[in-house]
Amino acid sequence: MLSFLPGLFILVGAVQYAPEAALEARGVREGVVVVADSATGKDGKNHRLTLRTADGEELEERLAYNGSGAPRVGERLDVIRDPEGVVPMERADEVDAAGRLGGLIAGLVGWTLLAVLAGWRGHVRRRRGKTDSLLLSL
């Protein structure tokens, strides 16, 4: 049970680090204006925003936004998009590859420390001759 939180950091960090690192490394940052919003889903919380650059060019890719508080039509945003089209576009203020890497490293360190402590506890219990269940006795 103690390894759940570090494991969650590892899972989230591993899944989200690669796309954000790709956007940070090769992404193109540009200012855009929201020109249309097509909300779908039961609550209308799945938004697909149509964006236009400062040059007046409408972007082919749409920005996906899930949840309430989506940017309104006419609102200006900074986005980072992948010129190769491999990684989906993100709002620039939400891309934090360094933070994701920090979470991934913290999860790995935490999980490693808990595994070593659990192994040491089992080793000490076996040396003392206690072979009953470790789950119920403290």
UniProtKB/TrEMBL annotation:
It comes from the Bacteria. Keywords: Membrane, Transmembrane, Transmembrane helix. The chain crosses the membrane at residues 97-120. This is DUF3592 domain-containing protein. It comes from Streptomyces griseoflavus Tu4000.
